[in-house]
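Feature request, filed as a ticket because there's no other form

It would be nice if the structure record came with a short human-readable summary line next to the tokens. Right now we just get the raw output. Example of a typical job, pasted below so the devs can see what we mean:
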Amino acid sequence: MKILLIDDNPTNLTFLTLLVEKLGCTALAFPSPEAVLTEMPALDYDIAVIDYQMPVYNGIELLIEISRFEKYRGKPAVFVTADTDTATRIAALDAGAIDFLTKPINPLEFQARMRNLTALVAAQNKLADTASWLRAAVDEAVAELRAREEEIIERLTLAASFKDAETARHTMRVGAYSEAIALAYGLPAGLCSDIRLASPMHDIGKVAISDAVLLKKGGLTEQEFAEMQRHTVVGRDILRESKSSLLQLAAEIASSHHERWDGQGYPFRLIGEAIPLSGRIVAVADNFDALTMARPYKEAWPVERAVDHILARAGTQFDPRCVEAFKTALPSILAIRLANYDALPQRAEMAASA
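Raw output as currently delivered:
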């Protein structure tokens, strides 16, 4: 235990040092307020014993200066004084002192008070260490839980891709595009990351769609299109009962990424801001990737045409602010697309560069 001693009287300072060492503690002795202040904030101590009557700074003024350093706030301070005036003691208590020693110091009284204080500080330190350990344990548990949630999403996305190998690549690109748009929109980085992790689940409901419809080459009949639309509701129903916040976000995206700003989307014909923001963002990302990739029923569009298509539909199909964010994020989106070049079907790349 380190005890800070400040007294301008050399005899008193020596006496206090001997008493502290007799307790088995380390004495940090300073002959003036200025001397101790020059060592701060590098100085470490557990308890301060401060003489009240000193030149330049009295004990109260010194304690106020010490307390300006955050690391010393809450450190116990004991005043040594021959002054028994009540006003002085109240001022010292207001400044942060917790106890007083009256001059001339009684060695037995000093050691008894210091033993009590060192025991109190030791208990406080142990409590702080326990709290720190608990925080670290909670952080570790939360991180482990988060890792498991991310693995669940990855596995479910992989399961959905067994019917269509391109689906897995599509969903991962949509996740990366969605994060870029969310960041450009101005959302917090943590939420943007969550959207990236959750959005690959947007098509999980397609596991319930028949292969004849899902993999059909050419346009869908009205009945087939109605069946395809069911994937939004199925995806929501698969995910929404989860206790995981990530899977709940994924359920929100799955059910809303085909809604339109003008209310002509599906499955619930939501209008404008009634559509969850996550769904509005993913709608833009999903549309861009779908347009620029070849599908069984269509050729890939050139990137420029796909961008113009999205910009032209701000305020009708898409949230105008999300489209503006897409436009801002376009360099990042194109970089993401290029980084996934090997995963792009060759036919799509040829069309995109035409």
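Something like this underneath would help us a lot:
Residues 107-160 form the longest helix (54 residues).
The mean pLDDT is 86.
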